[in-house]
Amino acid sequence: MCILFLLEIPSFLSEEEGRVVVQLAQLKGLMESQTTAPSQGQVESNQPLLSFSTEEVFSLLDLNQDGLLQKQEIVSHSHSRDGTWLNPDNLRQILSGLEVCPTGMLTLEDFRRVYDVSQRPGQQRSGKHRSQFKQRNKHTWLYQGPGSHQVLQTLRTRLISLTRLPSTLVELSEPLQVIRYDHGDFSNAHHDSSPAHSETTCAHTRLAGNTSALTEVSCRYLTMLFYLSSVEEGGETTFPVADNRTYEEQALIQLGVDLTDTRETCDRGNMRIKPTAGTALLWYNHLSDGRGWMGELDEYSLHGDCPVRRGVKWMANSWVNVDPDHQRQAYYQRLVGQRHRAKSGMEEHYQPLSHSDLHQDL
After folding, report:
1. Total of domains in the chain
2. How far apart are CA 216 and CA 191, in angstroms?
3. Fe2OG dioxygenase domain: from which residue to which, for each copy (predicted)?
4. b vs e for 31-55, b when ≥16 Cβ sit within 10 Å of the residue's Cβ?
5. Residue 173 within any structural domain of the chain
6. CA atoms of 353 and 329, how far apart (whole Å)
7. Do 16 and 280 contact (CB within 8 A), yes or no?
8. Are residue 83 and residue 206 in the same domain, yes or no?
9. Tens digit of pLDDT for each residue in 186-217?
10. Could you tell me if 266 and 204 lie in one domain?
């Protein structure tokens, strides 16, 4: 019998941290969809507009969470590569307030004065500001590197501490994926990573490997899943074949029942975990190759998301990307690391990965 390595960590992030990640995802999702609120006379859909208090807008703009707004923080948030979520009037008000402030920074009290939410009809009583955009997509990606919100950087630091992986390896991996599941939403059982084949190449190291003719696949050594909200009913993360004696793909369909179809067979999963805000899950998608490097795909890491029956499920995925080819991974890190140092002016010494640093045998 093969036992899937799965670590469940309650209270890995606070309720406040989860709320900030959700809000950042909503803003980023709105920027991607660019779906504007209906003008007067248009019929509004039943999807609610985002609503943020003045304090929440201040906190989201305050990237380093020092309680002070600097010009660079405002500009970087309002002029991202994906669009804007502060409209021109908001931006002019805030920047004008900065110019007249002797310190060149805004406290929350200063921000309240310059961010005139009362000019919006119906908002003075509630103190809420309704966004001009609506969310259309159900998932988005959040950058966690330098300049990102302090909460996002903190989550990455905790992942590095927990896994004891080289920080460079984690920092060069995919951004944080944030997903919202509404009533009835689900995902069928799947593997986050892919088995290694001669005709495939890892998406993250393809350019470094000069293998443009090969099929790109995801190479995700481990998954860390964060529950950003609790769910009233449904929405469990299910591992259909965890702890089975053997794994056979054809055995996933039994008597006409497909165990990967979480809509129909969620209750038959060997392991089901109920979403609880603040809890994190960690599992390896690959076995060790016996030398401490990433080996074969762990078939027992097959997992999915049961349909949400009541409430809304917010979660996030953090993946650590590793190429099964140790030399190609090392070359990729040198290549990307040089670009980052050239861009930032930093002269950090690159240290290639050692096998023992990456994987402790299960």
Report:
1. 2
2. 15
3. 172-322
4. bbbebeeeeeeeeeeeeebbebebe
5. yes
6. 9
7. no
8. no
9. 998 899 999 887 778 898 888 776 665 567 88
10. yes
Distance CA 11, CA 321 (A): 25
How many CB atoms lie under 10 A from the CB of residue 223?
Answer: 20
Q: Which of 105, 132, 159 is the last residue of a domain?
A: 132
352 pLDDT higher than 70: no
* Same-domain status, 177 and 303: yes
Measuring CA to CA, which residue among 240, 361, 233, 188 is closest to residue 290?
A: 361
Instruction: Name residues whose C-beta falls within 8 Å of residue 73's C-beta, 6 or more positions apart in sequence.
Output: 61, 62, 63, 64
pLDDT tens, residue by residue, 65-80: 999 998 878 766 544 4
Q: Is the pLDDT of residue 242 over 70?
A: yes
Q: How far apart are CA 314 and CA 241, in angstroms?
A: 24
Q: How confident is the model at residue 179 (pLDDT cuts 50, 70, 90)?
A: very high
Pair 26, 37: CB distance under 8 Å: no
Higher pLDDT, 89 or 280: 280
Answer whether residue 81 shows pLDDT above 60: no
Label residue 46 by pLDDT band (50, 70, 90).
very low
With b meaning 16 or more CB within 10 Å and e meaning fewer, what string describes 163-174? bebbebbbbbbb
pLDDT beyond 80 at 9: yes
Please state the rounded mean pLDDT for residues 286-308. Answer: 91
pLDDT value of residue 214: 63
**In residues, how long is the chain?**
362
Structural domain of 100:
51-132
Residue 63 lies in a domain: yes
86 shares a domain with 169: no
